[in-house]
Amino acid sequence: MADAARSLRPETLQAANKPYHHGDLQNALVDAAQTILEREGPAALSLRAVAREAGVSPAAPYHHFKDKDELINAVAQRGFQMLTECMHVASEKKETDAERGLALGVAYVCFARDHPAMYHTMFDASRKRDPKYAGSGGRQHSSAYQMAREVREREGVRTGAAPLDIELTTIANWCAAHGLAELSQSNGFDDLKKQLGGDEAFFAAVLSHLGAAASR
Predict the structure, then answer these.
(1) pTM for the whole structure
(2) What is the pLDDT of residues 40-71, one digit of tens each?
(3) At what angle do helices 199-208 and 97-114 cross, to 10 degrees?
(4) Closest CA to 207 of 60, 107, 59, 75
(5) Cβ(122)–Cβ(79) below 8 Å
(6) Residue ranges per domain, the chain?
(7) pLDDT tens readout for residues 68-102
């Protein structure tokens, strides 16, 4: 799962490091913005910096983005696409819905760990557009969210769960993964990670214990 997240990065960064000469300028600018973001952090992002990174004139980005906020929204959308791909790769070979659900959660947290600047940019941008912490256009249109919901719907068919329960279960699992992604950035769990065999084992153990106390 961590490999899936990392595998998306080198080719994109390599492309962004090459001066732009022809082709899709908008994607080249987003590539350049991603490179700056992951190399220097959100504070370094500007239309001028992106133009310099892409090897185009300072005026070129304005043909596609009216201001920095539009550029950041495009970068955030790229991030959600990356997250969706990571989740897909992590879950596609799992045999049961329970395994797929757990794999989706672990992949989510691994993505946040491997792409912290991108992750925070994604959710900072989406908070400004929609209070429900989602991808472009709201959580219903976040492909990562929809993927998780589809797994829960299949579980719901098997268990006879009502649509509202499926929705709430999806949100609960999403909140758990998002919270774990934030909390795990500290070193407060280092001992547990070591005891369990590393980051991913720790993430899986935490997420697999959701609701365990309430069920007893």
Answers:
(1) 0.79
(2) 999 999 999 999 999 999 999 999 999 999 99
(3) 130
(4) 107
(5) yes
(6) 2-208
(7) 999 999 999 999 999 999 999 999 989 998 899 99
